[in-house]
Structure formats: C-alpha cells, structure tokens
Design goal:
InterPro entries: AB_hydrolase_1 (IPR000073), AB_hydrolase_fold (IPR029058), Carboxylesterase_BioH (IPR050228). Keywords: Hydrolase. This is Alpha/beta hydrolase. The chain is of the alpha/beta class. It has one domain: Alpha/Beta hydrolase fold, catalytic domain (Rossmann fold, 3-Layer(aba) Sandwich), CATH 3.40.50. The protein is 32% helix and 15% strand. The protein is built from 9 helices and 10 strands. The strands form 3 sheets. It has a 6-stranded parallel β-sheet with strand order 3-2-4-5-8-9, with helices on both faces. It has a two-stranded antiparallel sheet with strand order 1-10. β2, α1 and β3 form a beta-alpha-beta unit. The longest helix is centred in the last third of the chain and has 14 residues.
C-alpha cells in the first residue's frame, strides 16, 4: 500500500493598503503571489466599496475610521489564520504591518514606503502631502481628497502623465480626516503617526523596508530613518531602495520589479509559499 506524502499548506499573505488608495491597488501583487503558490488575502478597510470609483462617489461609510479601529480590523484578520501570515503593507499599511509584526502577529513583514510611527526621527523631512493641496477641505468636512493634479505630483511623479491619469482613475480615493489626523497627516499635525511599533522585539519575524528614491509623500530619507530606528536588531531587518521610483511603486507599471524583489527576499529568508505539514 502506497503511503501518502506529507500534507502541504500554503503560506498566507495579507496585503494592506494605505490612505488615498483603494485595495485594488494590490491587484497585480495578488495575482503574482497567488501564481507563486501563496494564499493571498486582500482585505479592504471596514466599509470600503468594491471599486475606487464607488468610494469616490460615496466615501461616507469610511467617515469615522481612525487608526486604532483600522489596526484592530487587520489584527482580527491576521489572528484568524491557523499560521501567521506574511504582512505586506504600503504607506499607512506599511506602518500597520510593522506594528503587527512587532506584536508577534506575523511571520514576516514588508513595509513599502511606510508612514513613520511615533519615535521615528524626522530630521531629513517628513510626509507633507497636504502642503501640495488646495485648502478646500471645507467642501469635504470628513474627508481629504487627493485631487488629480496633486496625485500626479505627490504619488505618481515618477511615471508619465498618461499613466498617472490612469492610476488615479483606477486607484485614488479620498481619505478620512480622522485617520489622517491619527497618522500625523492632517494639515495641523506636528509629528508622525500616533502609534507605537515595537522595534526592540527580538522574537519577531524578518522585516523588509522598501523606499522609492523619488517618493514625495514618504521620502526615502524617512524610510531610512525608520530603518535606523531598528538599530542593531538581532532579527533580519533589511532596507531596499529603488532608484527613480515614487510613492506609486506598488501599483504603477514598474510594480513587478518591486514584487519580485519581495518574493526573492521571502525565499532567501526561508519563507516558502508552500510548507510540508506533519
């Protein structure tokens, strides 16, 4: 009688998007990681409509969303897995991914152009997207839109105008002012996000920080400051800088090179898509 081989189990991957972007900004990554054998989960924010266009038409369900509630939303999702997932976050999602990893809730984390947490030194600049926007929030009492021209200048500055316009139509959404205040991104904020990342946790999984050197929303210098905060950690903590890339590096036409670097990094750290069980 032929014995059955060991059972196999896919490694889960949770993709976490940031403010001003829809969860569909991960569509390429979801396909790429699924094709490599990972079990991919792309949860939206609580109340997020299926498309960016729908959110732009009616962002109301996101009105009261703050950072604590958003983090708790993802924590609940992460805890639902039998095995700790790989956490991959962009912008505010990168901050949440680090927070969850520091709380021992992920097997590994990748933070792409992450917003800085409390305690990150910002001598070389800080995210200031609002300084490039018109003071028109009175028309949007609970939301801060990212107008098309500002999206082009702040997010999609490293691609051509035609591509930037398509990216806006497909992925851009207004952000709740309550969340922006919590993230330190409202017009009056004096510092980084009001959340703490446990950078001293020596039991956490590996961490990869990624920056675009042409990023105007989260400058490369800010990501380097985040990296330095981890100091001489005994746990794998790597930094990858992509030249000529902006904040749209996860969903513009160059996303594959970033995703493939992350896939190679996971493999190099022994985090395979499928693991034998038993």
């Amino acid at each position: 009688m032929q014995s059955e081989g060991p059972a196999v189990k896919q490694t889960p991957v949770v993709l976490i998007h940031g403010a001003w972007f829809h969860r569909s900004s991960w569509e390429g990554w979801a396909e790429r990681f699924t094709s490599h054998g990972y079990a991919v989960c792309v949860p939206g924010w609580p109340g997020e409509a299926p498309t960016a266009e729908q959110v732009r038409r009616d962002p109301g369900p996101l009105r009261d969303l703050g950072l604590a509630a958003l983090t708790a939303h993802y924590e609940k999702i992460v805890r639902s897995f039998d095995n700790p997932p790989v956490l991959i976050g962009h912008s505010a999602g990168g901050l949440i991914a680090q927070h969850l990893l520091g709380a021992d809730l992920g097997r590994a984390a990748v933070a792409l152009a992450p917003l800085p947490a409390r305690g990150v030194p910002l001598d070389h600049g800080r995210p200031r997207p609002w300084s490039l926007m018109p003071a028109d929030s009175a028309r949007h009492p609970c939301f801060e839109p990212l107008p098309r021209a500002r999206f082009r200048h702040v997010v999609a500055n490293a691609v051509g105008e035609e591509e930037a316009a398509k990216l806006f139509d497909r992925y851009a959404v207004p952000a709740p002012l309550r969340l922006l205040a919590d993230l330190g991104l409202d017009r009056t904020a004096a510092g980084p996000a009001d959340t703490v990342v446990n950078t001293a946790n020596s039991a956490r999984g590996p961490l990869l920080l990624v920056s675009g050197q042409e990023d105007r929303m989260v400058p490369d210098a800010v990501t380097r400051s985040v990296y330095k905060l981890y100091g001489d950690s005994s746990v794998v903590t790597d930094l990858k800088q992509f030249a000529d890339r902006g904040h749209s590096l996860v969903f513009d036409s160059g996303w594959r090179s970033v995703a493939d670097h992350v896939l190679a990094w996971l493999a190099a750290n022994g985090i395979e898509a499928v693991a034998a069980q038993g």
